[in-house]
Design goal:
This protein is of the alpha/beta class. It has a single domain, classed as Rossmann fold. The chain is 39% helix and 15% strand. Helix 3 links the parallel strand 5 and strand 6. The longest helix has 13 residues. This is Short chain dehydrogenase/reductase family 39U member 1. It comes from Saimiri boliviensis boliviensis.
Length: 211
């Protein structure tokens, strides 16, 4: 979460209004579905522990009144070098043991770390941006498609599935839900604000991460 101290708008032109930008998880806010498509105006945040937690995070970051331009960025799974989601996946995939998680049909909302940083910077610097932005890439992918693309980037097969029972045993019920269930999240408002993605496509993003 990054923010600038709030101030009084009355004596300040719009270009100098103070800003507050915070980041939460899109994959936890929107209800899992194999068919629904969610944008920034879609309902959510009230169906399980993690979604309620995101709602509380966003409420805690919100400042009262309208004297501060406020932006919330709901991010997908962040892809970057040196750790994070990819850090846990690389070894089995490099060994040719990677594959989809569970059925693989669940959507996998993702974003390259450069674009997440870019959206946060864009939200701070562009005075017309306010409200919720989905910090996800514009090209969606299922978990199986993600596994195949990562395998292709590494030059390795990626067809060995990780059964849901194993995921639940290793990660526990609550965390397993976030891996086994997904949602198709689109950055409609993010694109409408004029943000230009550096890595809109999954293949190019993964190649850069593992290079």
């Amino acid at each position: 979460t990054s923010s600038l101290l709030p101030g009084c708008r009355a004596a300040m032109p719009p270009s100098t209004w103070p800003e507050r930008t915070s980041s939460t998880l899109s994959e936890a806010y929107y209800q899992p579905s194999l068919t629904a498509e969610y944008d920034e105006d879609s309902p959510g945040g009230d169906f399980d522990f993690f979604s309620n937690l995101v709602t509380k995070w966003e409420a805690a970051a919100r400042l009262p009144g309208d004297s501060t331009r406020q932006v919330v960025v709901r991010s997908g799974v962040v892809l970057g070098r040196g750790g994070g989601a990819i850090g846990h996946m690389l070894l089995p995939f490099r060994l040719g043991l990677g594959g989809p998680i569970g059925s693989g049909q669940q959507f996998f909302p993702w974003i390259h770390i450069k674009d997440l940083a870019g959206i946060l910077t864009h939200a701070l610097e562009a005075n017309h941006v306010h409200g919720v932005l989905n910090g996800v890439a514009p090209s969606s992918a299922t978990n199986a498609e993600f596994a195949q693309t990562l395998g292709a980037a590494l030059g390795r097969p990626a067809f060995i599935p990780l059964p849901s029972t194993v995921v639940q045993a290793v990660f526990g019920r609550e965390r397993a839900i976030m891996l086994l269930e997904g949602q198709k999240v689109t950055p409609r408002r993010t694109l409408a604000t004029g943000y230009q993605y550096s890595f809109p496509e999954l293949g190019a993003a993964l190649k850069e991460v593992i290079a």
